[in-house]
Amino acid sequence: MNTEQKGIVPIAIEEELRQSYLDYAMSVIISRALPDVRDGLKPVQRRILFAMMEDGFEHSKPHKKSARVVGQVIYKYHPHGTEPIYGALVRLAQDFSMRDCLVDGHGNFGSMDGDKAAAMRYTEVRLTALAEHLLKDYDKNTIDFQPNYDNSFQLPSVLPASFPNLLINGASGIAVGVATNIPPHNLGEVMEACGALLDDPQRTDLFDIIKGPDFPTKGMILGKKGIHEAYSTGRGKFTVRGRAHFEEFREGRTAIIVTEIPYQVNKADLVQRIAELVNNKDIEGISDLRDESNIRGVRIVIELKRDAVPHVVLNRLYGMTPLQTSFSVNMIALDKGRPVQMNLAEVLQKFLSFRLEVVTRRTQFFLRKAQERAQILIALSIAVRFIDEVIAMIRQSQDAAQALCQLTSRQWHLEESLLVYLRAWQNNDNISHTYHLTDSQAKAILALRLQRLTQMEQGKLDQELKECHESILSLSALLASPTQMNALMKKEFLAIKEQFSTPRLTSIEKDLSGLTDEDLIECEDMVVTVSVKGYIKRVPLSTYRSQKRGGRGKSAMSTRDEDEVSQIFISDTHTPLLVFTSMGKAYQMKVYELPVGSANARGKPLVSLFPVTESESIATLLPLPKDKKYEYMVFATSSGHVRKNAISDFLDIRSNGKIAMKLGQSEKLVSVDLANDDHDILLSSYNGKSIRFSVASLRQFSSRSSTGVRGISLKPNDRVVAMNVLRSNTYPADMIDAYRNKQYQDTDAAAQEQEQILSKEQFQDIGAQEEFLLSISEGGFGKRTSSYAYRCTNRGGQGVANMDITVRTGSVVNVIPVHDDDHVLLLTDKGQLLRCPVSDIRISGRKTKGVKLFRLQEKELITSIAVLPPEQGEPETVTEDDGGL
Hints:
Elements: H1 3-6, H2 13-33, H3 43-54, E1 64-65, H4 66-76, H5 82-93, E2 103-106, E3 124-127, H6 129-135, E4 145-147, E5 154-156, H7 165-168, E6 171-174, E7 179-182, H8 187-199, E8 220-222, H9 225-233, E9 235-241, E10 243-250, E11 253-260, H10 267-279, E12 286-291, E13 300-304, H11 310-320, E14 324-330, E15 332-335, E16 338-341, H12 344-385, H13 387-396, H14 400-409, E17 412-413, H15 416-426, E18 434-435, H16 439-446, H17 455-480, H18 482-500, E19 507-509, E20 525-531, E21 535-540, E22 546-547, E23 554-555, E24 565-572, E25 576-581, E26 585-590, E27 604-605, E28 618-623, E29 632-637, E30 641-646, E31 658-659, E32 669-675, E33 679-685, E34 689-694, E35 700-701, E36 709-710, E37 720-727, H19 733-745, H20 748-757, H21 760-769, E38 772-777, E39 781-786, E40 800-801, E41 812-818, E42 823-828, E43 832-837, E44 851-852, E45 862-868, E46 877-878
Parallel strand pairs: 8-19, 22-46, 30-35
Antiparallel strand pairs: 1-3, 2-3, 4-5, 6-7, 8-9, 9-14, 10-11, 11-13, 12-13, 15-16, 17-18, 20-21, 20-24, 21-27, 23-43, 25-26, 25-28, 26-31, 29-30, 29-32, 30-36, 33-34, 33-37, 34-40, 38-39, 38-41, 39-44, 42-43, 42-45
Helix pairs in contact: 3-4, 4-5, 8-12, 8-18, 12-13, 12-15, 12-16, 12-17, 13-14, 14-16, 17-18, 19-20
């Protein structure tokens, strides 16, 4: 087939596809997806607002059906489907999408839950007062018009916007290869920034005026770095967070109340996401979730469990749900039909340049109208002054055309006053006194009503001509002065700001997005309590008050089924804990991760915190030191074995734990403590034996699976109940004996002996190094004994007597180092707790039974003790009759 004869030109398909796709891409970019930098509107939005203004949908008039607007837009300007047009109209009316709505809607226009608007036959709309400032003066030759799709109507290529709508309401759109995402801003701040740029066009730093985006859904922006980057380059990202607070809804129960959510977040999806995380146990501590939002605002209620930490739960909600999101800014808009990425200052400068053009064209329009009116007024003034001649000419004329010809062909003499006005109009001082009327002037004379011939009407003509003259001079001066033009624009900006500005909705906060759970927890001293059957809790130390020695105490834990309180530990919430179980496993956690409870609460089972067996119990809760003053970790078992490891062997422990020590059959891990080579180890047994040996005598093990070496030889039915780390003795035994005789007996013979053996400095130095060991028995007896009473020997021996064990005293429960200003906590197997000063407990020798500390009920036994150091603060002391702690 001869293609040339058929008028067919062969084209490569690659070239045709490339060109067609580029044409399609540009059509989408320019005619659909991207807003114009001048009025901040996409074509469909611009056509909707213009159609509403043309059809009289002003804010001062009643609402009209949305279907009418959609129909007019399709008929005149936008021949597409009803859904995209109505969807664009709905968004212009949504107060959660637009910072300052351009359409005032009546009816259901959707919700933050993603609900769709009602059908357009049900909803009604009209323009807002602010939207009319986008359209103001469009009929005064301020903008260019273009033909519609079939050349039957004219529509504006851009609206003569009085404010930078692109920044105030933002914009988002995805075209082919190009996307834009501009956040909304506060109108007052933007208008103030426009005024600042008019004063200093070279200014680029506007951060002190425009603080940041201002979203209609409120919330908060974390940090300023991302905002400054977006404003400086046109691209940037920052974090947006919803706002929440805590409310007490029951005694001891807290709820998180979410009142603001991030911009463009679907509230229903947010609630569903929280529910999924709770059901999957990704977030612990939430007992109930409901949405109580209404017409007054957002209210999502998240009820917490009694032992949950509100700040931690909220922080996890921020990290795992859309309650905290990031907003990516990409300031791309059409500038003269081209997509351009601009920073904040450039966007405002483009708008100001366009606004100057609008104001200039509007001024020229008013000047032209004033000049045309001045011509008519001059013609009417001539007719009034020469009324007899004018009437004669008209009466002599055969028709209107002949009268018009005679009026324009006649030379009229101008008075000096009229000549002044004519010179002002034509800006020419050489105008002749003789004047020829134009056709429009002659027509105005022919249309002159007889009532204008009265003296009053002649005066009005002169006054109007004077006002017109002044207007021409003023408008001409305005056009000739850039300073006056800027002042007028600034005045109009200020008027819009005063009329429509509202306070900021979105606050700019310090960037807290990188905070960990620990950063949100107040550093507070806690009493950690553990029961034999594996229940654990933490209680603020301030819950307990002091009693006199011999009091009855107050419940520290609610026990059931003969469950016994086994251990207590004092530490602050930020302290990392190494948790060693009786079966030799180690776990790591922070104190704040333990469940919080009241003084008489039972706590939470260990199996919910660690993967432990039912036969396991906690042997030691060991706080890791914040400094590096310790080198080793020393282990002691119930059968008397000890082992020394480097602390670094236990710094990295995963959530499933690790083996800390290999144990024999029926052997249990009793205690783990930190030590150095200049320390001594004191092992104490259930039957009242103790042995002291040097840490340096233990070799360091590199393996965690070793059983260690023998520390003390035990008799049958005996077991190790305590291990303590003591300072090593640096003085010979005779000096220690001399010190003890002088310190505790103070006899003349002892004094003489002390003077012979010890110098004053040696006596004071030995006293400074002295430590006291508090021994507590099951029957509630206790005593303090100097550490000097326990001589350092080789490990592996049977030790020396530690306490006089009788039926009344019972066996030894624990042995702990104490100071005079410490307080001691005693716990019984019935869950009773007593707190009393250590200074109330008598200092006695190794072989004594001590004094009665706790008045126990029948078959009630002391199970554990703990010491409160002096930095915990001096508690209030109450009498036994007070019945409290």
